[in-house]
């Protein structure tokens, strides 16, 4: 408790300085959200290992550094992916660089609105305000509250009805400040009825060819609302420096006949915490959560998912595959709730892990809570080592040991990676996800 008080006292000083520099936004709806969020954070405080969903994540390591807000917003520059043509939304040190968003995106009818304006936008308010201003506040939402507290300029992306966006929207998130700092990217995406979009969320290691070496935290929150008969395919790639920590929350709501798929790949970072929560609000939805991750050294990667089947005739699939080595740790805690009215639910959940070192540790806990009697649900988990028979077979064909191991690792992740629909994104991620022997 004393440590919590010390951390909150420090954040109080940071917030006071933050408020003093709000300028024209002081007293506006965004400032009200920031103040209300910080007040709530002080009441609930951060979770610890006594909280079931946080027992495998060292929250103390995440929040103990005396973070400041970034003082720099450098010129945005990062290499593009070969062959990938996308609409780029750059986010540097938590700030959206709006003037670099291509006009061609908005010429299609897509609105990209700064958060301080979106808070008063009828379309934003109708779908997101009930989640943001919910009275259901607990320590589970502490990092969301931290994000809202220090939010400077998130964005709202509004995709018109029946629009099929011709190429991916690439959200490039970078943290490059040289100090011990934290940033809080925040975005809201509404796919209106009948629309179709591909979102590529990209976290990279360097900018202008320079590695960031300062200890820092990226605390991202994303909300995606999928209206009836709309489709969103979301891909996340993360390759942060070993000094950076990431707390990531993705919250999805789906309505009748909608489709949502996410492909998440984690390679970098020090301590990585991923949370994905899905609310299925109407019938005939399809949801797929798929992830591949590699952890080595002393990395820690924690994946937490929750899918709420509230109504009948919905389908969800989860597949998480990881490879851990060295002294790394990983966790998967997947929860599927099937409510009493969710008859004819079809839900599948699987977590598979390769553990390549006797010092690496994996914790896996797929869970089903079923309160309906006419459903088709299953879950499973496997934790094992590399298949020695397959390794022997490849070596017997003249393939050296290191190449053979790499081939088997690639094949293990391929069940997720090969489903990524964009070939250029798929090839790029495949070329980066390599554990050195």
Descriptors for this entry?
single chain; 437 residues; alpha/beta; ten-stranded mixed β-sheet; 10 helices; 22 strands; 37% strand; globular
Q: What oligomeric state do the depicted chains represent?
A: single chain
Mean pLDDT rating: 90
Structural class: alpha/beta
Strand arrangement within the widest β-sheet reads 2-1-5-8-12-14-16-18-20-22
Q: Determine the N-to-C terminus distance.
A: 42 Å
- As a percent range, the share of strand residues is 35-45%
Please give the count of helices.
10
So what's the overall shape?
globular
Largest sheet: 10 strands, mixed
Low-confidence stretches: none
Helix proportion: 10-25%
Extended strand count = 22
Rg, nearest Å: 21 Å
Write the layout of secondary structure elements.
Layout: H1 2-20, H2 29-44, H3 59-63, E1 87-92, E2 95-96, H4 103-107, E3 111-114, H5 115-118, H6 122-132, H7 142-149, E4 155-159, E5 169-174, E6 181-183, E7 186-191, E8 196-203, E9 206-207, E10 210-211, E11 216-226, E12 231-238, E13 244-254, E14 259-266, E15 271-280, E16 286-295, E17 300-309, E18 315-324, E19 329-338, E20 346-355, E21 361-370, E22 376-384, H8 388-396, H9 401-417, H10 423-432
Parallel strand pairs: 1-5, 4-7, 5-8, 6-11, 7-11, 8-12, 11-13, 12-14, 13-15, 14-16, 15-17, 16-18, 17-19, 18-20, 19-21, 20-22
Antiparallel strand pairs: 1-2, 3-4, 9-10
Helix pairs in contact: 2-7, 8-9
What would a concise description of this structure say?
The chain has ten helices and 22 strands. It has helices spanning 2-20, 29-44, 59-63, 103-107, 115-118, 122-132, 142-149, 388-396, 401-417, 423-432; strands at 87-92, 95-96, 111-114, 155-159, 169-174, 181-183, 186-191, 196-203, 206-207, 210-211, 216-226, 231-238, 244-254, 259-266, 271-280, 286-295, 300-309, 315-324, 329-338, 346-355, 361-370, 376-384. Strands 2-1-5-8-12-14-16-18-20-22 form a ten-stranded mixed beta sheet, with helices on one face. Strands 3, 4, 6, 7, 11, 13, 15, 17, 19 and 21 form a ten-stranded mixed beta sheet that branches. Strands 9-10 form a two-stranded antiparallel ribbon.
């Amino acid at each position: 408790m004393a440590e919590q008080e010390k951390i909150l006292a420090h954040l109080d000083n940071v917030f006071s300085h933050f408020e003093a520099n709000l300028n024209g936004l002081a007293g506006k709806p965004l400032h009200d959200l920031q103040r209300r969020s910080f007040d709530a954070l002080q009441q609930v405080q951060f979770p610890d290992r006594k909280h079931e969903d946080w027992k495998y994540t060292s929250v103390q390591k995440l929040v103990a550094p005396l973070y400041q807000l970034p003082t720099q917003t450098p010129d945005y520059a990062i290499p593009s992916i070969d062959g990938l043509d996308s609409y780029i939304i750059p986010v540097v040190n938590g700030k959206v660089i709006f003037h670099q968003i291509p006009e061609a995106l908005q010429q299609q009818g897509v609105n990209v609105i700064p958060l301080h304006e979106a808070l008063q936008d009828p379309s934003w308010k109708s779908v997101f305000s009930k989640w943001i201003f919910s009275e259901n506040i607990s320590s589970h939402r502490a990092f969301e509250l931290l994000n809202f507290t220090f939010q400077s300029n998130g964005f709202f992306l509004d995709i018109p009805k029946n629009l099929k966006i011709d190429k991916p929207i690439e959200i490039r998130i970078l943290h490059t400040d040289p100090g011990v700092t934290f940033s809080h990217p925040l975005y809201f995406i509404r796919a209106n009825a009948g629309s179709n979009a591909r979102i590529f969320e990209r976290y990279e290691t360097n900018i202008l060819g320079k590695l960031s070496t300062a200890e820092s935290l990226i605390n991202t929150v994303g909300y995606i609302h999928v209206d009836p008969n709309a489709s969103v395919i979301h891909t996340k790639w993360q390759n942060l420096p070993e000094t950076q920590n990431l707390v990531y929350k993705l919250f999805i709501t789906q309505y009748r006949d909608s489709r949502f798929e996410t492909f998440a790949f984690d390679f970098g970072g020090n301590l990585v915490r991923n949370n994905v929560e899905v609310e299925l609000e109407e019938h005939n939805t399809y949801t797929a959560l798929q992830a591949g991750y590699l952890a080595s050294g002393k990395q820690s990667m924690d994946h937490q998912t929750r899918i709420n089947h509230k109504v009948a005739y919905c389908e969800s699939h989860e597949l998480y595959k990881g490879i851990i080595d060295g002294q790394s740790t990983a966790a998967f805690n997947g929860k599927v709730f099937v409510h009493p009215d969710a008859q004819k639910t079809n839900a599948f959940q699987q977590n598979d892990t390769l553990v390549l070192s006797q010092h690496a540790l994996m914790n896996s806990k797929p869970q089903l809570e079923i309160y309906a009697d006419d459903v088709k649900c299953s879950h499973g988990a496997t934790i094992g080592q590399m298949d020695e028979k397959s390794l022997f077979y490849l070596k017997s064909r003249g393939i050296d040991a290191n190449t053979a191991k790499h081939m088997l690792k690639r094949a293990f992740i391929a069940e997720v990676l090969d489903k990524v629909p964009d070939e250029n994104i798929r090839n790029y991620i495949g070329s980066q996800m390599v554990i050195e022997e």
